[in-house]
Design brief:
single chain, about 240 residues, about 95% helix, elongated
């Protein structure tokens, strides 16, 4: 391979790579849709010209047919009047009108075919344009989604989730330790107070039960007055010693 060919290949490769980077698929597709839509008025104008030619030929054919009928009537009238010279002149005009009618009829037939083909081509183009437009819109949507995914991927690459995860774990452990310590203190304080209250309640119950027992014994005459007093003094003495 020659030097020039190699340089040309390198230039084309670099140029192609640069164009690939510069091309925005979304913008290219949008411009393609605009170009296709811009061609519709041109197609409509072309179809309108073909249809106008058809209608003009149809009008000419109608006029020629009228001329043929009119000249035929004039020829017959001239013959009846014995004016062969005038009849001959009309015959010449009639022959020319008939030739023009045949030629115009042929042109009209071709124009009618061309008009139908032009309308069909225009309709096919519009249908294809709508199809391509729908495809382009889907591609544009896919391009936008791909762009968002690329941006998200770039964001995820620059986002170091490990550091933040360790921070959350550390803070969670600290909070859990504080909650556990607070609950332990609360439980300890509650159990101490509850224990003291339960001791006092049991002692008060014992005193009430002893007093009630002595009262029953006194009512039943099992104890003398001195015994009742002594029992109360003993009970009071026991309470005093326990308190001390």
């Amino acid at each position: 391979m020659g030097l020039w060919a190699r340089l040309s290949r390198i230039f084309r490769a670099n140029t192609g790579a640069a164009l690939d980077k510069m091309e925005n698929p979304e913008l290219v597709l949008q411009q393609t849709i605009r170009d296709m839509r811009d061609r519709v008025p041109e197609l409509n104008n072309s179809v309108a010209q073909v249809m106008a030619t058809e209608r003009l030929l149809a009008k000419n054919k109608e006029n020629l047919e009228g001329q043929v009928v009119d000249l035929d009537s004039k020829i017959k009238a001239a013959v009846k009047m014995g004016r062969d010279d005038i009849a001959t002149a009309y015959i010449g005009q009639l022959q020319q009108a008939q030739l023009d009618l045949v030629r115009t009829s042929g042109q009209l037939e071709h124009a009618s075919t061309a008009s139908k083909q032009a309308l069909k081509a225009r309709d096919n183009y519009v249908l294809n344009m709508k199809k391509r437009t729908a495809e382009a819109m889907q591609l544009i949507s896919a391009a936008k989604q791909a762009k968002l995914q690329e941006q998200l991927a770039q964001t995820m690459e620059t986002f170091n989730i490990g550091d933040d995860a360790s921070t959350f774990t550390e803070m969670r452990e600290k909070i859990d330790r504080r909650v556990a310590a607070a609950e332990a203190k609360l439980q300890l304080g509650s159990s101490s107070v509850d224990s003291q209250m339960q001791d006092i309640e049991r002692e008060a119950m014992d005193i009430q039960l002893q007093d009630k027992l002595l009262e029953y014994k006194q009512q039943m005459g099992l104890l003398g007055s001195g015994s009742n007093a002594a029992g109360k003094q003993i009970s009071s003495g026991n309470n005093s010693n326990e308190n001390n």
